[in-house]
């Protein structure tokens, strides 16, 4: 379960965003698996998500802040349709940047 909570009630994603080393690869991986931000055992609100993003940016992890900003940031998605010139993309999987 990618949203397993640690003893403080934070999800793996939330805890990973605060690592002292650059956690970019780890955050990208767990986002692609569908991880969500949890604190104190509950999904974070939009307001708290904004505050978290500011805290993460202040620590120098702007890339991670940008990834968690979007609902689809870092998520694995399937392309279900594409413009006529890109029919070969339909059915392919991608990761949203």
Description:
The protein has 97 residues and is of the alpha+beta class. It is 36% helix and 10% strand. It contains 4 helices and 4 strands; from the N terminus they run ααββααββ. The chain has helices at 12-16, 24-32, 46-58, 62-69; strands at residues 38-39, 42-43, 76-78, 93-95. The chain has a two-stranded antiparallel sheet. A two-stranded antiparallel ribbon has the order 3-4. The chain is elongated.
Q: List the secondary-structure elements in sequence, H or E.
A: HHEEHHEE
Question: Which strands sit side by side, in order, in the main sheet?
Answer: 1-2
The gross shape turns out to be: elongated
Q: Residue-averaged pLDDT, rounded?
A: 83
What Rg is obtained from the alpha carbons, in whole angstroms?
15 Å
The share of residues in helices is 25-40%
What is the structural class? alpha+beta
Q: Give the N-to-C terminal Cα separation.
A: 23 Å
Q: Beta-strand level of the residues, as a percent range?
A: 5-15%
**What ranges have pLDDT less than 50 throughout 5 or more consecutive residues?**
none
Largest sheet: 2 strands, antiparallel
Number of helices: 4
Work out the oligomeric state of the chains in this entry. single chain
Give a count of the beta strands, DSSP E runs of length 2 or more: 4
